[in-house]
Specification:
heterotrimer; A mainly alpha (344); B alpha/beta (516); C mainly alpha (333); A: 344 residues; mainly alpha; ABC transporter involved in vitamin B12 uptake, BtuC; two-stranded antiparallel ribbon; 15 helices; 6 strands; C: 333 residues; 4 strands; globular
């Protein structure tokens, strides 16, 4: 039985709360990578101005991380409810293909393209959400269906081939600059702020955490846990749609096979590294944000030390397994025993 | 006394077994013995130490002290598997077999006949049929286990257990989800095994069953042995009083009067009923019963463990669906499909299982308190943070919840403070009816008294309260009216002056029944 | 007696319920194959049927391994990447490092099994979710494949060429017997393993209820780890078969194949959450997927994307069907 500490240790609590925050780990990882880069690569932190745009490795990291950043928002919520969404990569492909085909067929109004895309993403999320909450199918299994079928649907929409996107207004989304800074990470950051405000200012964030922390108790407390879960999947679908738009806009081309490939994994990894437990409950959007940046920085760092980007999945895999093993009960118990033995 | 008749050592002899957990002494100096060819019942209410003793016996826990002898040889089973090898087999209430495999495989798993890892299916089937035949069960061994009724599954589990040359069979609440016919089938088999010379430990909550089949019984209370008795020599009333630790007769043999409080005189038949249940019941949970919960009354629900108290509460709150009867809230018939619907009508339910059905462990005390109110209001009508803080500060002070701050995760609080926070959660919804299931279990005396005061205050404020507790004196102290359940039936309702410890025990024990 | 009646009632129901997914699978295959045979000339020919086996051999072999893992309630998302890794690893050993094909192939199979066993050990000992660990395994194997070479390597070793060019004439059609032969042998061994060994039954028991399996004294950890090792080894074999088929090594081989393998297993009537299934169903599953692909290829006017959509729909149907069956069982007891 643990008795609470007395409340008068206020001066210590700031440091304690920083230590306790799950965002500390990705932050520490980022600092470490920054240090490595400081030593091994001279111009990692150099940001230069070119044609009124700031360019440099740091900018590239933010720009390239923005897709995983956006996916991470939805994935954080789904994982917080104790679920998982494997279908986001396929949803990105569906949405990317749809947007590209719309523009190819002369629908060039940006708002309508975006509205249709987001609607489509929400629909995909709803399908996942209903399978999980209504049909009570395990999240991994339920979202696997769309993961498999989604690629086919996207091929069907695009006619099987890549679809070039020539609408430069649209391509501005992924390639443009705002005040000299790449637009995509700004959009991603704004999304984080907006979702954070929505979740923390309304009770929605609490409901998601409650449903993930103890579903039975939440239901007994009068929470419509099914609806809460469904909502998380819908938000995840919408985020996937946004990420899909951004990716095809960035490449100026929608490819039903490669759009969003492996992005579900990056998103899940970002969430896990960010300190949101796969078992659900408390989520940490800031952690996910840092986690996504960390993954991208790792890729870039590898590149600097001479590992090609194709091989980058390897160190990523090692990192994620290391993080999982560190968080596992078995390791903690084992370490605990070691420490106790050392103490006696 | 029994030892004199039977000089041979008992099949199982556990001597002065002790087991401590952090903060709790689960067993202290408990003796327990079972003879070959007898059915021995282990009885006790919550926290008596039954399950700990069984777990020591089956190798789940290692005892801190004492010794276990099987047929005279000292043993120390290190795991359930180890215990099985020694000859102690256990069949649990929830059948621990694989429901997706066939009966034959379930009996044979892990020791299938065959060579080089390859199976001999015909031999496996023959083997399974033989194992079942020992129990005189005729069954297609290729049937999937999960497709069989629970009673048959239990018998398959027994067949598997016996297949391992068991000397002692532990049946841990095997009848909890069986109907009467199925229980009769099980008893037939148990009697047969008794004649074969097996020792059987039978854990159950149903006194009728204890009197129907057991030879001797051991009563535990608060981790200590109260005594060991031949079943035929102990009346129901005495048995229940020993289980509850309440003497029914004083030294001169007069019935004890006791436990009366002012609460008992506060019944008011004219008060408006908040909830009326008419013939509400559910198969396998509780038989149809009537219950009227009125404004400003505390209705106690008394009964032994397993008598259907919590099951009744779950029906009223819409957690389980009733398959008979109807519920009226403020005179209007309602159909609850979820707790959510019940809460919307002003009901609240503080569950007995704090950990699984109560707290949101990693969320803060504040979030745990406001969650029900917020859920009732919906996500769109968010409580502002200032309101939340005010609400929490109010309840933390009013219920004297000891926590460093409202932001501490609730899992760091002591049991009593968690309980108070959960009560605060429900009070914040301003319910018209609150069901409190074992609100004082596992918490310290000070917190108990505070929770009782709170219930009195709720009554005074005109809230209807349904109070469920295993502690009979607590029920008497707090209730204005008491409904008594026995073996899933409502057997009596007492109010005002009728409330009396002796009568309550009498009804709970079913003392009017034969065997007395 | 009353009990006997209850049992008879159960027997009939449970007989059908246990086998319903398998019957549906077999029925779907016959329906699809019959319809395609009626519609397309030569569909029901020896050459085409043989082709059905040889072109789906990698997927089939992979699916056998996946079935074992899914039996035990796990999942392995790394198989596609392991196949890709093997594909490039073997060719690189032979072409770049001058190994003889036989030790090269054995080394590749061993590596696949070791990776599988390592993932199984992490899943079991550290109690990590299988999908996450094997996702990391997928990243690892794919990264390793790219590390060896991102360009495809052509095999030139004469012994290997012989294996690749092995053909036979069956009923007037020229066929490649090696991939089809491996598939048939692996399937037969898989059925044997699942149905007639303690290991296979233990897998199903663990998938049915791991705590119960532990209480029953089954070797849970060893069985699970072995299943992952076998799955990794078979995934490596799938990569090898592809090298036979194409005569070259390619590090992008097998992308997304893990999903097809899972789909084959589920369409074969195995419960994706474990504990219930038949290896024979996996055989039917591979035939169904193969038939759909072949029919779409025969048609020519249908886009190949329909394969994935139909696969997804079949997945949905089977998962919902099994969910319903499970609910029916639960309601009964």
């Amino acid at each position: 039985m643990k008795w609470p500490e007395p409340a008068n240790r206020m001066n210590k609590s700031w440091l304690a709360s920083v230590k306790k925050s799950p965002a500390v780990w990705p932050l520490a990882g980022l600092l470490l990578l920054g240090l490595i880069n400081l030593i091994f690569s001279r111009n990692f932190f150099t940001v230069t101005e070119l044609d009124g745009h700031y360019v440099g490795t740091l900018m590239d990291i933010f720009k390239n991380a923005s897709i995983v950043l956006i996916l991470g928002v939805g994935m954080t919520l789904v994982i917080a409810t104790g679920g998982i969404d494997l279908s986001v990569g396929s949803v990105m492909a569906i949405v990317g293909a749809t947007a590209a085909v719309m523009m190819k067929n002369g629908v060039n109004s940006l708002p309508s393209v975006i509205a249709v895309s987001i609607g489509l993403g929400a629909l995909c999320g709803l399908v996942n959400g209903l399978l999980v909450s209504w049909a009570r199918i395990q999240p991994i299994v339920a979202t696997l269906i769309l993961m498999v079928a989604g690629r086919g649907i996207s091929q069907l929409i695009s006619g099987g081939d890549q679809v070039l996107i020539t609408n430069e207004h649209f391509n501005y989304l992924g390639n443009g600059f705002l005040g000299g800074i790449p637009l995509a990470p700004i959009l991603a950051t704004v999304l984080y702020l907006a979702v954070w405000i929505w979740l923390r200012r309304s009770a929605t964030g609490l409901f998601i955490e409650a449903a993930g922390d103890n579903e039975t108790a939440s239901r007994f407390a009068g929470l419509a846990t099914g609806r809460v879960k469904c909502l998380a999947y819908v938000v995840c679908g919408i985020c996937a749609a946004m990420a899909g738009l951004l990716e095809v806009s960035y490449i100026r081309d929608a490819d039903p096979l490669s759009t969003g490939q492996y992005k579900e994994l990056d998103a899940i990894f970002a969430v896990v590294i960010g300190g949101t437990a796969l078992s659900g409950g408390r989520f940490n959007l800031l952690g996910t944000y840092l986690g996504a940046i960390l993954l991208q920085t790792l890729t870039v760092t590898m590149l600097y030390v001479g590992v090609s980007s194709a091989v980058a999945p390897m160190p990523k895999a090692v990192l994620i397994i290391a993080v999982c093993l560190m968080q596992s009960e078995t390791t903690r118990r084992w370490l605990g025993r070691k420490f106790r033995r050392a103490a006696t | 006394m029994a030892a004199a008749e039977n000089p041979a050592p008992p099949l199982l002899a556990m001597r002065s077994i002790g087991k401590k957990f952090p903060g709790v002494t689960a067993l202290s100096g408990v003796d327990f013995s079972v003879r070959a060819g007898e059915i021995h019942s282990l009885l006790g209410e919550n926290g008596a130490g039954k399950s700990t003793l069984i777990k020591v016996l089956t190798g789940v826990y290692t005892p801190d002290g004492g010794e276990v002898r099987l047929a005279g040889t000292p043993i120390a089973p290190a795991s359930p598997r180890d215990a099985e090898r020694l000859g102690i087999s256990t069949v649990y209430q929830e059948v621990n077999l694989i429901s997706s495999l066939s009966v034959a495989e379930n009996i044979g798993l892990g020791r299938q006949p065959g060579k080089f890892g390859f199976l001999n299916w015909p031999a496996l089937r023959r083997h399974a049929r033989a194992a079942l035949a020992r129990l005189e069960i005729d069954l297609d061994v290729d049937t999937e286990l999960g497709a069989l009724p629970l009673a048959i599954q239990q018998m398959v589990a027994i067949a598997r257990a016996l297949d391992m040359q068991a000397k002692l069979l532990v049946l841990d609440e095997p009848t909890a989800s069986l109907d009467e016919k199925e229980v009769a089938e099980l008893f037939k088999i148990m009697r047969q095994l008794r004649t074969q010379g097996l020792g059987i430990v039978f854990v159950t909550h149903f006194l009728d069953q204890v009197y129907a089949i057991t030879d001797r019984l051991t009563v535990l209370r608060n981790g200590e042995r109260v005594g060991e008795y031949p079943t035929a020599s102990l009346g129901r009333l005495e048995l229940v009083s020993k289980m509850l630790g309440r003497e029914v007769r004083d030294e001169e043999g007069h019935f004890v009067q006791g436990g009366k409080t002012t609460a008992n005189s506060l019944t008011d038949e004219s008060a408006a009923p908040v909830l009326e249940a008419r013939q509400i019941g559910r198969r396998g949970a509780v038989h149809p019963l009537d219950l009227t919960l009125r404004k400003g009354e505390v209705t106690g629900l008394a009964g032994l463990l397993g008598s259907g108290r919590t099951e009744t509460a779950r029906l009223l709150f819409g957690i389980d669906r009733a398959d008979s009867g109807e519920i009226l809230v403020r005179g209007k018939p309602v159909k609850f499909s979820s707790p959510r619907a019940a809460i919307a009508l002003g009901l609240a339910f503080c569950s007995e299982d704090r950990k699984v059905e109560g707290i949101l462990p990693n969320l803060s005390v504040r979030e745990n308190i406001i969650i029900a109110l917020q859920a009732k209001q919906g996500a769109w009508r968010t409580l502002r943070r200032a309101e939340q803080d005010k609400l929490c500060a109010h309840y933390i002070q009013a219920l004297r919840i000891k926590t460093s701050s409202a932001e501490t995760p609730i899992k760091n609080l002591s049991g009593g403070n968690q309980q108070k926070a959960l009560l605060a959660r429900w009070l914040a919804t301003q319910p018209e009816l609150i069901i409190v299931d074992e609100p004082t279990r596992g918490i310290d005396i000070g917190a108990k008294a505070e929770i009782e005061q709170l219930i009195a205050k709720l009554r005074a404020d005109g809230v209807a309260v349904l109070f469920i507790s295993s502690e009979i004196e607590e029920v008497i102290r707090n209730s204005t009216r008491i409904a008594i359940l026995r073996e899933r039936h409502k057997v009596a309702e007492l109010s005002g002056e009728e409330i009396d410890l002796h009568r309550l025990l009498h009804e709970m024990a079913g003392a009017g029944k034969p065997h007395e | 007696m009353a009990r006997a009646q209850v049992q008879e009632g159960c027997d009939m129901n449970s007989f059908i319920r246990q086998r319903l997914p398998l019957l549906v699978t077999a029925g779907i295959f016959l329906l699809l194959f019959g319809a395609a045979s009626l519609r397309y000339a030569y569909f029901c020919s020896v050459g085409n049927v043989f082709n059905l086996f040889s072109s789906n051999a990698p997927l089939g072999v992979m699916a056998v391994g996946m079935t074992l893992v899914i039996f035990a309630g796990g999942i392995d998302l790394s198989v596609g990447a392991v196949a890709g890794f093997t594909n490039i690893f073997v060719t690189a050993l032979m072409e770049t490092h001058g190994w003889h094909p036989v030790p090269a192939m054995l080394a590749a199979l061993a590596l696949g099994a070791v990776l599988g066993a390592a993932m199984g050990a992490i899943i079991h000992v550290f109690k990590q979710p299988a999908f996450l660990v094997t996702l990391a395994g997928m990243f690892f194997a794919r990264g390793a494949a790219y590390w060896i070479s991102t360009a495809s390597i052509k095999t030139t070793h004469p012994f290997f060429q012989q294996l690749t060019d092995l053909t036979a004439k069956v009923a007037g059609a020229t066929v490649h017997p090696l991939p089809a032969g491996i598939l048939v042998v692996v399937l037969a061994m898989g059925i044997m393993l699942a149905q007639y060994t303690r290991f296979g039954r233990n897998l199903l028991a663990i998938g049915g209820s791991e705590p119960s399996a532990l209480l029953m004294g089954l070797p849970v950890g060893a069985t699970k780890i072995t299943a992952y090792a076998l799955c990794g080894g078979l995934a490596a074999l799938a990569g090898l078969i592809n090298t036979f088929n194409t005569g070259s090594g390619n590090s992008i081989y097998g992308i997304g194949m893990e999903l097809d393998a899972i789909a084959v297993v589920v369409i074969g009537g195995t419960l994706l959450t474990g504990g219930r299934g038949h290896m024979f169903g996996t055989f039917c599953g591979i035939l169904i997927i193969g038939t759909i692909q072949a029919a779409i290829a025969f048609d020519g006017s249908l886009s190949s994307s329909w394969t994935r959509i139909i696969t997804g729909l079949l997945l949905l149907v089977f998962i919902l069907l099994q969910r319903l069956l499970l609910r029916a069982t639960l309601k009964k007891t």
